[in-house]
């Protein structure tokens, strides 16, 4: 799970040392939504969700707003690095639930994060369950604030990798506790979290991962750009994750295994292993870590992030954070390849990745009519390191090979092809819901 292009070996910190954080009663800081600009500047901040400007009442009694998407890429200076980035989300579609909200969210704060003009923090959050959009938006608002607060609590001016990792773990566990204590019903709802903390003055990136959204790095050897995973999917497919949940009393079974009588004959549909209680057909999560999911938490589905930290030099070209709405139908390399084609404009890169993923969803569903299409929400943050003029003189080009997967239990990259089977909905909560799907 490392980056061969870096001079310094990546540092992977174990979540085992994470201690339980207490309740955090800090006032929720309102996110500063600033317009994106293509002009060079010292920093930009903002948090945005979804892709339409609409309001709707939720089951929890809260009003959510799907904010206007970015219309331009951002270009900024972060310490030793020129960074160009954009964020984009597209609501999925379920022909049986036409008013389904976008349950994805993203956040971005480049410059002045953690009171440092050279620092930046990016995040992607994939909500699931009846109140998934509320969970994702809660984490989108609170997690960046908590990360900054816990970083500022560390005693040293120059933070060590261990201190950064500790602060990130504390922020995630505190955010999870705050979500449990909020008026959002997260019994069977929650969100993933994949985040990137970039320290421009110290040439370091740190990725924290909860769930099965992904971070991928594109590195150049001067000729080609190779996709390298910065996270590992936390699902019951991983032997270490399955064993950890089983120690907490979970059963790891697919839908077909837990109820063979209801196993359908559709061999084109994937039926992944899930987390189940010993004496009940719930919660049925196809992931092993999340924020929220109060019921599943008792079975080992926790909010403790896996963390990867590494130095960056001149060979790192692009970093992508995205939800499984993209990575379920595109492999790591294809996502990087698509981004690299549009290196001059990160927002255009985001648009084309989402369009490609959308086309793959339709292909997987054997669907040519959007009216009958069924596909997941798709969200991406694309970050290019360096000015576009740096790319003009670089002889690198995208490559089209099988992806390096982040789904290896031992952290050793393995080759992975795109899914040849349709992906069964990951957040179905009980057998009645599954049989009605």
From TrEMBL:
<protein>
    <recommendedName>
        <fullName>PPM-type phosphatase domain-containing protein</fullName>
    </recommendedName>
</protein>
<dbReference type="Pfam" id="PF00481">
    <property type="entry name" value="PP2C"/>
</dbReference>
<keyword id="KW-0904">Protein phosphatase</keyword>
<dbReference type="InterPro" id="IPR036457">
    <property type="entry name" value="PPM-type-like_dom_sf"/>
</dbReference>
<dbReference type="GO" id="GO:0004722">
    <property type="term" value="F:protein serine/threonine phosphatase activity"/>
</dbReference>
<keyword id="KW-0378">Hydrolase</keyword>
<keyword id="KW-0479">Metal-binding</keyword>
<dbReference type="InterPro" id="IPR000222">
    <property type="entry name" value="PP2C_BS"/>
</dbReference>
<feature type="domain" description="PPM-type phosphatase">
    <location>
        <begin position="84"/>
        <end position="385"/>
    </location>
</feature>
<dbReference type="InterPro" id="IPR001932">
    <property type="entry name" value="PPM-type_phosphatase-like_dom"/>
</dbReference>
<dbReference type="GO" id="GO:0016020">
    <property type="term" value="C:membrane"/>
</dbReference>
<feature type="region of interest" description="Disordered">
    <location>
        <begin position="40"/>
        <end position="66"/>
    </location>
</feature>
<dbReference type="GO" id="GO:0046872">
    <property type="term" value="F:metal ion binding"/>
</dbReference>
<dbReference type="InterPro" id="IPR015655">
    <property type="entry name" value="PP2C"/>
</dbReference>
<comment type="similarity">
    <text>Belongs to the PP2C family.</text>
</comment>
């Amino acid at each position: 799970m490392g980056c061969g292009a870096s001079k310094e070996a990546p540092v992977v910190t174990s979540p085992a040392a994470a201690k339980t954080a207490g309740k955090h009663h800090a006032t929720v800081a309102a996110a500063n939504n600033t317009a994106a600009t293509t002009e060079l500047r010292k920093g930009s901040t903002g948090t945005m969700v979804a892709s339409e400007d609409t309001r709707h009442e939720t089951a929890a009694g809260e009003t959510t707003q799907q904010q206007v998407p970015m219309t331009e890429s951002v270009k900024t200076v972060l310490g030793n690095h020129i960074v160009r980035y954009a964020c984009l989300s597209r609501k999925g579609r379920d022909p049986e639930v036409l008013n389904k909200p976008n349950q994805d969210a993203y956040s971005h704060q480049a410059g002045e994060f953690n009171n440092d003009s050279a620092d930046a923090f990016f995040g992607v959050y994939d909500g699931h369950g009846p109140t998934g959009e509320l969970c994702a938006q809660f984490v989108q608002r609170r997690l960046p604030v908590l990360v900054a607060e816990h970083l500022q609590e560390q005693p040293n001016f120059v933070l060590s990798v261990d201190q950064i990792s500790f602060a990130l773990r504390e922020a995630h566990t505190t955010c999870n506790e705050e979500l449990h204590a909020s008026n959002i019903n997260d019994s069977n709802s929650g969100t993933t979290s994949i985040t990137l903390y970039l320290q421009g003055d110290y040439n370091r990136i740190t990725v924290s991962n909860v769930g099965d959204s992904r971070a991928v790095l594109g590195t150049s050897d001067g000729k080609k750009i190779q996709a390298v995973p910065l996270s590992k999917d936390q699902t019951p497919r991983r032997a270490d994750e399955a064993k950890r949940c089983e120690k907490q009393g979970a059963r790891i079974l697919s839908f077909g295994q837990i109820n063979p009588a209801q196993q359908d004959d559709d061999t084109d549909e994937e039926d992944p292993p899930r987390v189940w209680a010993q004496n009940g057909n719930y919660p049925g999560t196809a992931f092993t870590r999340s924020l929220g999911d109060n019921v599943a938490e008792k079975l080992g589905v926790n909010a403790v992030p896996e963390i990867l930290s590494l130095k960056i030099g001149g060979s790192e070209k692009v970093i992508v954070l995205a939800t499984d709405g993209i990575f379920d139908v595109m492999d790591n390399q294809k996502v990087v390849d698509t981004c690299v084609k549009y290196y001059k404009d990160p927002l255009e890169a985001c648009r084309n990745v989402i369009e490609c993923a959308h086309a793959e969803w339709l292909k997987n569903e054997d669907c040519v009519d959007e009216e009958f299409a069924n596909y997941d929400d798709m969200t991406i943050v694309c970050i290019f390191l360096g000015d576009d003029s740096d790319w003009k003189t670089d002889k690198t080009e995208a490559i089209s090979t099988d992806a390096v997967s982040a789904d290896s239990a031992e952290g050793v990259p393995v080759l992975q092809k795109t899914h040849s089977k349709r992906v069964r909905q990951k957040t179905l909560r009980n057998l009645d819901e599954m049989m009605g799907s």
